[in-house]
Amino acid sequence: MRAISIISALLLLTGCGDGEARLRRLLQQTSGTVDLPAGEFELSSELAVPDGARDLEIRGAGSGTLLRASAKFNGRAMLRLGRGAGVRITGVSFDGNREALEKRAGLPPSDVPFARHFSGSGILADQVQGLSISDVAFRNIAGFAILVSRSSNVVIHGAEIRDSGSRNEKGRNNTTGGILLEEGVASFEVRYSVLRDIRGNGIWTHSNYGSPRNRDGVVARNRFWNIGRDAIQIGHAVNVRIEDNVGTRIGYPVDEVDTEGGGTPVGIDTAGNVENSVYAGNRFEEINGKCIDLDGFHHGEVRGNTCVNRGAAADYPFGHYGIVFNNANPDMESTGILVSENTIDGTKFGGIFVIGRRHRIAGNTLRNLNLAGCNESAAVYGCSHFPGEPDLLQAGIYLGRGAERPALARDNVIEANEISGHKMSSRCVLAAPGVSLAANRVAGNRCADSSEGR
Q1: What is the DSSP string of 135-202?
Q2: Where are any strands of DSSP class E within 32-140?
Q3: Do residues 339 and 298 make contact, with C-beta atoms less than 8 angstroms apart?
Q4: More exposed terminus of the chain, fewer Cβ within 10 Å: N or C?
């Protein structure tokens, strides 16, 4: 009898037996404090906090509470909550059992939120007004570590996420693995989190075209290592600050980059319609893609960021320009961007690709540009360019005639930049056919060739 009692106690502590049922009973509470017991608990399906929970704190035990998905787990997330207010989750660890639960799936249709498309996430919160997630750890998550949808006043501090995210049918990343705020999340901050070995995006915002934009947010002082897609992506947003984040090895592993889906890796990416936002003081190293992509970005600032690649062109198969302007979203025009005091060191092609008007590009240091040696090395590195635009990939700063849509570069200030690299003394600031350098103020830039063969 004594041996049977000991075995029963051990089963409870490890989450077997009635351990999962015990958690479900505890989480029926809709306010106050829920103290989860210590130990490892295996889940067969999602733990659901009752809709409408208010002023509720869910706390892991000081000695450790680990929720682990079983090989037969079925659910959108291990912990799900919705339609609540004032919910706090702290001190809990999640193991998503990705090896058993990964489902090869592509992106959702354009009118379907990610919360309805992917399963196997860590925490899913939908329509929560006042959500705090702090000191939580995630590993082996098949979906998103944290997915927050249609919510407000969201604070995520001190999350540790590693070895997470799934692939599509071709074996490429499908954006999953990190932290996603979608469908109009308002007043949010993500700080002091560490993301390592994430197949998809690290931290990002997203809204479908007809949904409210995400707004009034801060993403600051997070660390990234080995991210397969974007370290940070700000999609469809207003008034967001991206500050003092640090990342290394963006766009790795190479064979999981979403080549077919156009998922070029980026340190800080932009999508949709993004305005009144600031990207400042961020530092990335070894970027197998772009440093900063400004697709949809307008009336904002990009200043004091640093991106450094120390290798040769061959080390960056998805290498690109350093900073790229674009205008895929039909509701915006590339207008009124300040790009200042940034350092771009080592790009496969050029330094800054510019479209649109009334931008100020000043005081930037662009060095070791065009590692591929375009166009002299076209046969080796594929220095292909738009038809009729032979200068596209060999310029330090290129004034374009458009990207997704026509948008001639005009009425811009390009001044006091230091530009060096392959033949940059003669290719420093160039314009596409039909774009007039005289229609922009180009003055006081210092241009020089750098040593070859890096």
Answers
A1: S-EEES-SS-SEEEES-EEEEEES-EEEEE--B-TTS-B-S-SSEEEESS-EEEEEES-EEEEESS-S
A2: 32-35, 39-48, 54-59, 65-82, 85-90, 93-95, 121-126, 129-134, 137-139
A3: no
A4: N
- Bond from prior residue into 387 cis (ω within 30 degrees of 0): no
Buried-state track 162-174, b at ≥16 Cβ within 10 A, e below 16: bbbbbbbeeebbb
SS3 124: strand
Cα 75 to Cα 45, 113, 174, 389, distances in angstroms: 6, 16, 19, 51
Q: Three-state DSSP class for 117?
A: helix
Provide DSSP, 387-443: TT-TTTTT-SEEE-SBSSSB---BS-EEES-EEEETTTTTSSEEE-TT--GGGSEEE
Q: Quickly list DSSP for 230-251.
A: EEEEEEEEEEEEEES-EEEEES
Type of residue found at 227:
I
The pLDDT tens digits for 265-320 are: 999 999 999 999 999 999 999 999 999 999 999 999 999 999 999 999 999 999 99
